[in-house]
Fold each of these.
Amino acid sequence: MADLLDRDLAQEVLREARARGGDLAELFVEERNSVQIRLDDGKIEELTSGLDRGAGVRVGRGTSYGYAFSNRLDRDALLEAAAAAASSVKDAQDGGPGDVVDLRVLRASVIHPAERPASAVPASTKVAWLREVDEAARSFSPEIRQVAATYGDSVQRVLIATSDGRWVEEERPRVRLYVTVVAARDGNIQTGSHGPAGLAGVEFLEGHPPVKTAEVAARRAVTMLDAVAAPAGEMAVVLAPGMGGVLFHEACGHPLEADIVDKEASVYRGRIGERVASPLVNGVDDATVPNAWGSFSFDDEGTPAQRTVMFEAGVLRGWLSDRLRAQKEGVESSGNGRRQSYAHPPIPRMSNTYILNGASSAEDVLSSTERGVYVTSLGGGETNPATGDFVFGVSEGFLIESGRVLAPVRGANLIGRAIEVMSAVDAVADDFGTWQGHCGKDGQAVPVDSGSPTLRIARITVGGTGA
């Protein structure tokens, strides 16, 4: 695989970036090939492919930095971007330029190969997958009214060169199939969706066949047609596999990102070593998980992918950091410096954020729940990292009475505070599952995986309109 950029030119750009000092200069070069196909009501409405290429230059001093980017990779454009980034940083104390160390190649300790590259599969085959989705969803029930599906794949090649001598190259293949189904009965309209994704080639769809993805979305839509109004008040909530990870990502993961901690906007600031969750909660952020949606070999600052323990038996163990915040604290980066593209600077972000398996069985967790709600799909949510307050919509949930899962419920919300709610976890099963999505922060979206087994929160406020 040819280099995205000549090494001598990269070194020259870094020297220009450090011409006015600064602690660190970094060059991020990206080339992304992508395909997207969208089906709506049985028709292919969009089939697009594209190539995006460019580079970003960052010059850091402390936790502040200058950043500039270009969609051209010629010498003049890159040197101009480097000069622009350098101009935003105050001169070094000695008034001279900063050093640039000879670049050395860093080898990945973990890779995520594509066994069947999506680029080798014709568009007609990808279109056929979407038609399978449409047929499978519509055949699930005569109450299905609309089917929409989007298939996407991409290959992102990145090159990262830094003034302290890092030279990193990585290729990241990704594939996703997202299906939304609308069902209707007597004026009652409900929606269901499902969207598995992986850092992989199209072999990913062998483990997540289009037909199965369609059936999950269709079942959710049809199930909700029988939903009753959700109860309101404080009660037990059982979260299905993956859903506890979604809550953990929002309520706990964001407050543990080092820039939020550094701004004194985190409920967890100053609490490392304290028990801030149930002893049953063991949580990690792990970018090394093979072929997981949020994985990578190196983060977008050239730090090797790592597994970071966030909670150990409920005790807070650490933050998710990038290089700038880690340097300020005198520690090593956790490898969580991520960016949406070359047009964005890296910031601390999650990768694959998981609550690990416990010792119970899912059947026992449910059967021992006297009354509550069983949540099998969460919708959108909001979190205040400074207080830990959050609210999540429930896309699919069911009443629990005397240990039995009964009628589906609609209009439910989960409301609480991170530390209180995570401390109320009183059962964790051994049936780990995941959910894939895109996480937004500071105007950037990156692929993330959330995961957990079935778990129960003994007390949490459920917002609803039922009795």
Amino acid sequence: MSREGGKIRHENQGPESLLGSAHSLIHLVEYATGSIVSRVILKQSGGNVTLFAFDQGQELSEHTTPFDAVVQVLDGEVELLVGGNPVVVRAGEIAIMPAHVPHAVKALTAFKMLLTMLRS
């Protein structure tokens, strides 16, 4: 997987800081100009849950993963290219990207998503 445009920045607070309390997903990761910001919410052998904030125009080039992934858009709008088909996903919507199917990500606006990767 590669990124085009700005850099990917990983938030430093680990998942342990979230245990046992309620949190607003949309406020757990902030936008950064010209960048993609990620924050791991949960990492287990069966999968990962990660928050992302993409500045407008940021992209991840086409790649594949060996796992199914659920994209839940929390804010803004993104175009996913899944198996060559463009899929626009807006705040409040989800899309499922199947394992081993090429996909790409392009921020149509600044957007935030919760990505759940299922390994089993």
Amino acid sequence: MTVLVSVESRHGATEQIGLRVARILTDAGWPVDVLRPAEVTQMTPYAAVVIGSAVYGGSWLAPARELVERFAIELRERPVWLFSSGPIGDPPKPIGDPAGIAPLIRLIQPRGHGVFAGRLVDEELGIAEKLMTRAVRAPYGDFRNWRVVDAWAGEIVRALEEVRQAAEPAAIS
């Protein structure tokens, strides 16, 4: 029962969250493939899927959105979890789901959607990103809370164990 972890990240912070989730799944005994959304060509090998995206301008990045839309039918047939990374600050803002995620949730009906604080580093940003950051007075820093990410990944592990147990034939006594 292989799990796909597919994450779109602009500067690497969201990718690191996806890799952390993948490691927790692997440590729990689940085979995991980690692919960028554009690299995913089929869902057949995967019994479960985790898809994440950085949030810019309040929305998921296009490759992650397109992955969900491209495989919507197949994603509805297996356990799926989504995550968004982008709120920044202490406490992280904006609060709540990013714009545009609600239609994706309605489309595939995932088991969960995690929203995690992100990282904003001045040296990683292009000119347009720096201008937008200044315009909205966004704070710089790494606001990711690894305990929250680990707990969310642990919930996925527990849910996958339940799926596996339900799929196993009852033992004959």
